[in-house]
């Protein structure tokens, strides 16, 4: 079994390591009426110089309806199957922010979503600041409010400090943790459809704004908003690395 990690070491202002991270670019709602337009690093995703990655959502000067952010992905660079997927993250606060660490099956271009499977290691929304969500999406149980998951309340806003979010992933089993505390365990018997979670996946780190999450109504006064990532680690996993693709992904999803 192998490991992979990124501690985001490097000078302030540079893009994260391009051998590990690419970027999904563009706008158009991303499937659930999100308001941001994703840009190419380092415009909205750059190292801080303190061993962290900062993903920043902001309203662009002179364009009040233009909100930019970043969505980083290891697709075509690093893929993995099983093991522990963990990250130490400080989420932003404010109505409309929607930071996430999640995974998609590497076969997405061949079979589409949700047949490829989606595992949300963590999601947090500004409209529910003390809660973390762990969720999966697959055929027959996909989309906002239709995945299979758990809301876990921590008692204080997640934006107050860094927290460690993790999923332990084994054949036929997924277990979610925050700061070492288990809050959700899932097996194939608990989902109302196929279990597309036993093949290779890739990582996504992003900060969305607005969208179809109930109660997370966007408030532009929450911007700029900053998601800080201290580290990301994958351990005890079947890790595959490859050369970065020549072309970045551009989406105008509706």
Short description:
This protein is mainly β. It is globular, with a radius of gyration of 17 Å.
Give the key terms.
254 residues; mainly beta; Jelly Rolls; eleven-stranded mixed β-sheet; eight-stranded mixed β-sheet; globular
What does this structure look like?
By secondary structure, the protein is mainly β. 43% of the residues are buried. The chain is built from 1 helix and 19 strands. The protein has one domain: Jelly Rolls, CATH 2.60.120.200. It has one helix at 108-111; strands at residues 2-6, 22-25, 36-38, 45-47, 53-59, 67-69, 71-73, 78-81, 83-90, 97-105, 118-123, 131-137, 148-153, 163-170, 173-178, 181-186, 201-209, 225-241, 249-250. The strands form 2 sheets. Strands 1, 3, 4, 5, 6, 8, 9, 14, 15, 16 and 18 form an 11-stranded mixed sheet that branches. Strands 13-12-11-10-17-7-2-19 form an 8-stranded mixed sheet, with no helix packed on it. 2% of the residues lie in helices and 46% in strands. It starts with a strand and ends with a strand. Belongs to the glycosyl hydrolase 16 family. GO terms for molecular function: hydrolase activity, hydrolyzing O-glycosyl compounds. This is Glycosyl hydrolases family 16.
């Amino acid at each position: 079994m192998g490991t992979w990690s990124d501690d985001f070491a490097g000078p302030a202002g540079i893009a994260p390591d391009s051998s590990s991270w690419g970027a999904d670019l563009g706008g158009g709602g991303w499937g659930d009426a999100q308001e941001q337009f994703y840009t190419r690093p380092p415009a909205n995703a750059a190292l801080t110089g303190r061993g962290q990655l900062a993903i920043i959502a902001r309203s662009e000067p002179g364009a009040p309806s233009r909100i930019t952010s970043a969505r980083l992905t290891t697709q075509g660079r690093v893929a993995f199957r099983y093991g522990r997927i963990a990250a130490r993250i400080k989420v932003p606060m404010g109505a409309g922010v929607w930071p996430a660490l999640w995974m998609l099956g590497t076969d997405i271009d061949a079979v589409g979503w949700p047949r490829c499977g989606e595992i949300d290691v963590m999601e947090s929304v500004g409209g529910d600041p003390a809660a973390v969500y762990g969720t999966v999406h697959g055929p027959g149980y996909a989309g906002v409010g239709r995945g299979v998951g758990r809301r876990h309340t921590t008692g204080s806003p997640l934006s107050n400090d860094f927290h460690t979010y993790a999923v332990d992933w084994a054949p036929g089993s997924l277990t979610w943790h925050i700061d070492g505390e288990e809050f959700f365990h899932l097996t194939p018997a608990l989902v109302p459809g196929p279990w597309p979670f036993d093949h290779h996946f890739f990582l996504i780190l992003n900060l969305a704004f607005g969208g179809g999450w109930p109660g997370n109504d966007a408030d532009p006064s929450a911007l700029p908003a900053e998601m800080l990532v201290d580290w990301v680690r994958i351990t005890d996993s079947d890790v595959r690395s490859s050369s970065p693709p020549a072309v970045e992904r551009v989406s105008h999803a509706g």
